[in-house]
Amino acid sequence: MPDIIQLLPDNIANQIAAGEVIQRPASAVKELLENAVDAGATDIQLIVNDAGKALVQVIDNGKGMSETDARMSFERHATSKIKNIDDLFHIKTMGFRGEALASIAAVAQVELKTRKEADTTGTFIEIDNSTVKKQEPIAWQQGTSIAMKNLFFNVPARRNFLKTNAAELRCIIDEFIRVAMSFPDILFTLTSNGQQVFNLERGNLKQRIVQILGNNYSAKLVTIQEQSDYMNIYGFVGKPETAKKTRGDQYFFVNNRFIKSAYLNHAMMNAFEGMIAKDSFPMYTLFMELDPALVDINVHPTKQEIKFEDEKIVYAFIRSAVKHALAQFSITPTLDFELDASIQQLDAVAKPFTDDKKAAAASSSLYNTFTQKNQAHFIEKKSELKHWKDFYEPAAKTFEQKAVDGEQETVGGEQRAASFEPAAAFKPLGVSYEQKNSLHGVTVDLHSLVQIHNSYIIVQNDEGYLLIHQQNAHERVLYERFIKATNGKPIAIQQSLFPVTIELAAADVALLSELLPDLHYLGYHIEPFGKQTFLVQGTPADVHQGSEKTAIEKMLEQYKHFSTDLKYSKREKLLRSLAWQQSIKAGTALTLKEMNTLIYDLFQCDAPNITPNGKPAYTAFKKSELDKLFGR
Ligand SMILES: Nc1ncnc2c1ncn2[C@@H]1O[C@H](COP(=O)(O)OP(=O)(O)O)[C@@H](O)[C@H]1O
Ligand SMILES: [Mg+2]
After folding, report:
1. Is the minimum distance from the CB of 534 to ligand 1 under 6 angstroms?
2. How many CB atoms lie within 10 A of CB 3?
3. Whose CA is nearest to atom 8 of ligand 1?
């Protein structure tokens, strides 16, 4: 028998190894950005085309490479960052494995341009499938540009495995943010298909957070800073009122590396306990610095988990530092002068505060929300609740007002139905308020409605009774209404008298732009208005004038929450998000009329028994079973 074992050719070995490091365009983004940081750049530009599938390019003004190093950098296990095993425990750079460039060159076409400050000419290298195609001297600025083109052109199976451009771009933005967040003193830009998505000027961490996560956080950040022999932590958490319904704006870094840790997240949640609603997530950007010997970063290059020598100490440290900071902020609210120099020029700061000005200020709503909000226990009212109430109050009032005025209510006739005008989220009854209505083959006695726990509605039918979950039921109703809307029966838009502008974080801009056409069917008339700004011209009638901004932000948040679920289309996710967000929440007291409308609408639905996500909307109980319970 001849021997059969052979060494794999380099390009195949590299391709296999590359699978570990480069799984998608975003992995290359991370590696190239980190290399630029390690090269000491102060200016780093990321350019992507086609969500990185066609091009990922990073241009930096770092220290550059000599001709020999440039060629060497594409070899596997070639690195300038460690020399021996001991160095692993003192790593100050982001990279150290020497695998990234070799991997990228194995699965894409790569163009490198680089020059060291001291050199008069730079080097150009073109590599394709691990093979050098061209190498020549070029004129180039100091620093390095690496362009990765046509990722996986030579591994079609992997190329097919990539997700949609929207999903891949999202991954790229996530990686970009993680690096940009740790190095606020470096200028970062991100350009996608020729459009600038981020332009992050150099500044301090606080400014960087606001640049990335949006202006909503300016003056709403609490400083965390605690030092000990074991470790130091610093960073910011959002004030409790900025907590969101979806996890998202949460970043942990260990020695400047982004990490994920459910355990440390728990420490954070613990510190916020009692200050934010149970199901909401605080913003945090927290940097931990500790002796590299006490953490194991030598984990898989694409994994963000990390091993601490003693996790419990880190947990306790975070919890107490954050608790401490939150307690301080709630006692002494501080205005943030550092962030906005223009505050200094305001009349209120520059001119003396007279007594009548004081009185005027004290009665203003701004003053009231300010003084109220700085109490640690103050939790902002959920806007969904407010909105639900808002659109019912006018209808309820007319009803009560009529009773006061002594007007006759004709129960059971067309007149009663006509006088009841719920806002547009609930269509008018359209039927008379009969003692009984035949809905979906079930005869339901609408007079027998009872609400319990402000969450369930009990309604009697011929066979027994139904126990309806009000929020689940409403989600179903809204969802089917939205489906109809997108299938050509658009929801009426109420044009705003005073169109409002909303400013979004850069990542949300891309998202909202994508959703605009569908949102138009759903009653939202929104137009792009400058780089990160949108003009809201109109909203569905049930969105209260003045709360358009919150409604849209909540909707985006919820959409992102759903967007991890890849099996749904963009539109489907949007419908589900809106239905969830606009639904009346459990815990909301309902009037008889509201319950009536809800149940009527529910049984008009094609699938009244479940929510879009498959939760039951009601359960039926048989009278015969009740009788049995009581020995009858
Ligand atoms: N942007 C850059 N500027 C200067 N040198 C670079 C740059 N990118 C890569 N290099 C050099 O190429 C080497 C290999 O890079 P890489 O494959 O990412 O491995 P690692 O970063 O783990 O060392 C680095 O050690 C560094 O010396
Ligand atoms: Mg590297």
Report:
1. no
2. 5
3. 35
* 542 closest CA partner among 424, 452, 415: 424
For residue 102, the CA-to-ligand 2 centroid distance in Å is 10
Based on the number of CB atoms within 10 Å of its own CB, is 483 exposed (0-12), middle (13-18) or buried (19 or more)?
middle
H or E stretch at 400: helix 383-404
C-beta neighbour count of 330 within 10 angstroms: 17
Whole-angstrom Cα distance, residue 512 to residue 611? 25
- Between helix 355-363 and helix 365-373 the angle, nearest 10°, is 70
**DSSP-assigned letters across all residues of 288-311:** EEE-GGGEE--S-TT----EES-H
pLDDT tens digits along 247-257: 879 999 999 99
Q: For residue 375, what pLDDT is reported?
A: 34
- Pocket lining: 549 vs ligand 1, CB cutoff 6 Å: no
CA–CA dist 383, 392 (Å, integer): 14
Most confident of 78-87, 180-189, 343-352, 401-410: 180-189
Q: Work out which ligand 1 atom sits closest to the CA atom of 60.
A: 1
Select from 592, 589, 618, 584 the least CA-distant residue to 603: 618
Going by C-alpha positions, the residue among 624, 269, 609, 263 that lies closest to residue 469 is 609
11 vs 195, residue with greater confidence: 195
Residue closest to 32 by CA, chosen among 132, 179, 140, 158: 179
Helix, strand, or coil (residue 182): helix
**3-state class of 52 per DSSP?**
helix
Mean pLDDT of 44-49: 97
Residue 273 CA, ligand 1 centroid: distance in Å: 44
Residue for token digits 């021997």? 3
Question: Pick from 240, 277, 248, 289: which is nearest to 265 by CA?
Answer: 248
The more confidently predicted of residues 61 and 495 is 61
Out of 59, 63, 79, 142, mutate this one to test ligand 1's pocket (max ligand atoms within 8 Å of CB): namely: 79
Reported in sequence order, the residue ranges of 228-306 that DSSP labels E, i.e. its strands, are: 231-238, 250-254, 257-259, 284-290, 295-296
**Crossing angle (nearest 10°) for helices 506-521 and 548-562:** 100
pLDDT for 200-252, tens place per residue?
999 999 999 999 998 889 889 999 998 888 899 999 999 999 998 888 799 99
Residue 472 token pair: 């689940």
Give the Å distance between the CA of 97 and the centre of ligand 2: 7
Distance between start and end Cα atoms, the chain: 86
What does the block give as tokens for 410?
């004709």
How far is it, in rounded angstroms, from Cα 74 to Cα 76?
6
Pocket flag, ligand 1, residue 500 (CB < 6 Å): no
